[in-house]
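Today's session is about reading a structure prediction critically. Students often jump straight to the picture, but the first step is always the sequence itself: look for stretches that repeat, for charged clusters, for runs of hydrophobic residues. Only then move on to the predicted structure, which in these notes is written as discrete structure tokens rather than atom positions. Here is the chain we will use throughout the hour.
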Amino acid sequence: MDTNKRNPASLATLPKVPKVKRKVWSVDTFREAIQQSDDDLLTICMHLAFSCSMRIGEITGLTWEDVVIDEQSIATNNARVIINKELSRVNAQAMQKLKKKDIIKIFPTQKPHCTTRLVLKTPKTETSNRTVWLPKTVAELLVQYQKDQKELQEFLGDAYNNYNLVIALENGNPVESRIVRDRFQKLCEQNGYEKVVFHSLRHLSTGYKLKMTNGDVKSVQGDTGHAESEMVTDVYSEIIDEDRRYNAQKMDEQFYSTLNHDSEMQPQNEEVQPENNGLSDSDMELLQLLKSLTPEMKAMLLKQSASK
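Below is the predicted structure for this chain, in token form.
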């Protein structure tokens, strides 16, 4: 009897795994964090994740030839980064299966008999290849960062491994994602910030840009490089409670405050306004004036009218 024809587990009903929402900082917390950070490498990574909606592998794989930050580009708001590769650690055997065209560069191993290799490779999807424009402030930070890096390179000379990486260690070697994550967690711990993963900054960026553009999903998708717009709209549907409360306040100010509550909700002790039975506006005004007089004034007017 052949018992291998059918897998009995294939008939099992898989339990539904609840989707856990990723914890995300507020914009105010992010602002404070980048101001508190004294780690220049981490700070630049955080700026790129937020301003350019970049993945961590895209940040660590960014090279200077794809960063356009000359004076003219900055002055004309055309400073930009061209995202076309990512840094990744892959198994040496799995690397053999990757198409040769997908591997841009293989970095030397730092340990003997290492079974994995750090590589620069093309992104998984075509939409991940994109150009993202830089805010002027971030562009200027990158200018200074590049200047400092060049000074270090000149000081170290041949001891600096120049791979033209934007994010590099002191000796020029690539920075693995785990190093950025560890430094980010250290920043959270030292300053008592809520612990979030580094990737959440990309999530924060997506939400911030959606609100800033009044829900322009396509333009934000162009920055994030998501293959499907649903990934962006999912973020859009997670508008935080603070913004939802703000929406209620704005609705009250812009709509409900314009309603004429006096005409819709008359107090019980207030007289109902009489219908205009063909009277002119001036007659109606006179009638309202008479009704507002005290009984003594009304009696005096009637007495004067009768004596005429």
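Discussion point for the tutorial: The first helix runs from residue 27 to 36.
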